[in-house]
Amino acid sequence: MKLAFSTLGVPGLPVPEVLALATAHGYHGVELRAHPEEPVHPGLSPAERAETAALFKGAGVEMIGLAGYARVAAPGDDAPVLNEIRGLLQLAHDVGAPFVRVFPGADPDRPSAESDALAARRLGVAAEDASALGVRILLETHDSHRTGADVIRVLGPVGHRQVGALWDVMHTWLGGEQPSESYAALAPHLGYVQVKDIASAEDTTPLPLGAGVLPLTECVDVLSRHGWDGWLCWEYEKRWYDSAAPLPDLLDAGREHLVRLLGEAA
């Protein structure tokens, strides 16, 4: 497995500084938060997109994906959601990212079957754009669809190779799903895995990897046991928690913890 971190942990940091952190601390990939607050977002000009791609290539660091905020099960018209996804797909194509992350975002008051069908329909349409651009859309285990079992209800009906899953280990744990269950549901569709750690279900302030309660050992074990060799991406949610320790100070220990888990699982 390969190790990456998300720029959610270093809000607003310029791309050259992000790449310097990755190379200095032994990470081979970076997930970019694609939001107007950040240096990389759908509003970039063609020249800025080309520059971003060149910076990653020059640093020898892979851009593993763009973390977008489109909500595919959200109520309302399809057009705004599809336009948002298409903007992310075009950006990913232009900067060289293989994946685009989307959220479920269903209305909790709406029957789940309706929300699932809505999300599947939108993803089915967007899959054609993704295919044309050579980018894959990943539905994250998050909010209204926290578990692998939830996400598979959407991905099954879509049935398109350009639409897959992003496994956020915190949300499947919060949803009461065991890592073996999450993997079994998501394995045919899995793009990559977001790891993190927290103190409890009530306190989700980000912690150094291994300092909290999330079943990281079990997650790495099940991935290793099945020969999965994709990305483990540390999503340290500093953007939402001012009190959290700065991510750069934790990167070495985080990499060492993941390398140790991988070694023990081998």
Please render the helix and strand layout as text.
Blueprint lengths: L1 E5 L8 H11 L3 E5 L12 H14 L2 E10 L6 H18 L3 E5 L8 H22 L2 E5 L7 H11 L4 E6 H6 L4 H8 L3 E6 L20 H10 L5 E4 L16 H15 L1
Parallel strand pairs: 1-2, 1-8, 2-3, 3-4, 4-5, 5-6, 6-7, 7-8
Helix pairs in contact: 1-2, 3-4, 4-5, 5-7, 8-9
Describe this structure in words.
By secondary structure, the chain is of the alpha/beta class. Helix content is 43%, strand content 17%. The protein contains nine helices and eight strands. It has an eight-stranded parallel barrel, surrounded by six helices. Helix 5 packs parallel to helix 7. The N and C termini lie close together (11 Å).
Neighbour order of strands in the largest sheet:
1-2-3-4-5-6-7-8
The main β sheet shows up as: 8 strands, parallel, barrel
Query: How much of the polypeptide forms β-strand, as a percent range?
Result: 15-25%
Global Rg: 17 Å
Q: Extract low-pLDDT stretches.
A: none
Mean pLDDT: 98
Separate helix tally: 9
Helix proportion? 40-55%
Number of strands: 8
Shape: globular
Structural class: alpha/beta
Terminal CA distance reads 11 Å
Order of helices and strands: EHEHEHEHEHEHHEHEH
Identify the notable features of this structure and list them briefly.
globular, single chain, 266 residues, 9 helices
Summarize it.
The protein is an alpha/beta fold. Helices cover 43% and strands 17% of the residues.
